Amino acid sequence: MKHLIPLLILLSTTATFGQDAPTLESQTSLLDVYKQGGWMMHILLICSIGTIAIAVYCSIQITAKRMAPKGNYDTLLRHVRENNIPEAYSIATENDNAFNRVLSSGLLKYNSAEPKHNKSSMEQAAADALDQEDVRQLIWVNYLNVFATIAPMIGLLGTVTGMIKSFDKLKTGQSEPSDLAGGIGEAMTTTAGGLLVGIPAMFFFFFFRNRLTGLISKIQKDATFLIDVASGEVKLD
Question: DSSP class of residue 136?
């Protein structure tokens, strides 16, 4: 019986807290939490909007459908296989995508009078164009890394400024919990806000960077194969 009394007290206390909790939650809205973080929450909001916008852009642009369509490759392979290089170059320049820009740069160096139809120059031109495509898309992916880096730092700065406010209250002799709540609330809110922005931004950075690496590798492989066919090194039945 003596062990049961403390347990009943604990249960009654928990039940009382559970009844009061919804009332406290209903008094604090998301906007109130945002305002509690101070002016640095505005910067974090901009970072979050930028992260979402770039993630949406990358999800649309960094895809096989956009950068290296399968049907497009089959059409170009048929013309290169038939040694119809002018037609293949014309199709590559008319349809704007990363693979076509790489291949058209290589086919531009095609010269039937040269040994292997000037293969070395075709490969070099295609490699240069491939580097440009990689850099073009990587610029946007790297912005995700920027947001993933600076958002937690801004949150940390808000933590420091919030604690400074709390210590200023203590210095003036205001040591009641209500006096310190504002600074501590700002510190915790900005820290959480920075992490809520930084963690998804870091995830999207690695996700789209790996996807881009895979697509660039595929474009390089396909373009090299078509150049090998155009140069005559690879014969297709």
Answer: H
Tokens 């909001």 correspond to what residue?
45
Distance, in Å, from the CA atom of 21 to the CA atom of 28, rounded to the nearest integer, reads 11
DSSP label of 3: T
CB 225 within 8 A of CB 106: no
- Check residue 19 and give its pLDDT: 44
Residue ranges of the domains in the chain? Answer: 34-231
For residue 202, give the DSSP letter.
H
- Please give the helix or strand (H or E) that residue 43 lies within, else none: helix 40-61
Which pair of structure tokens corresponds to residue 176?
């009641």
**Residue 168 token pair:** 């200023």
Contact between 74 and 220 under an 8 Å Cβ cutoff? The reply is no
CA neighbours closer than 13 Å in the CB half-sphere of residue 202: 11
CA atoms within 13 A on the CB side of 45: 10
Token pair belonging to 220: 């390089």
Please count the other Cβ atoms lying within 10 Å of the Cβ belonging to residue 197. 27
How far out from the chain centre does Cα 201 lie? 6
pLDDT per position as a tens digit, 43-62: 899 999 999 999 999 999 99
- pLDDT tens digit string along 171-210? 676 666 665 666 677 778 888 888 999 999 999 999 999 9
H-run or E-run covering 214: helix 177-231
Is residue 92 within 8 Å of 107, Cβ to Cβ?
Answer: yes
Cα distances (Å, whole numbers) of residue 231 to 7, 23, 98, 108, 117: 85, 77, 22, 13, 5
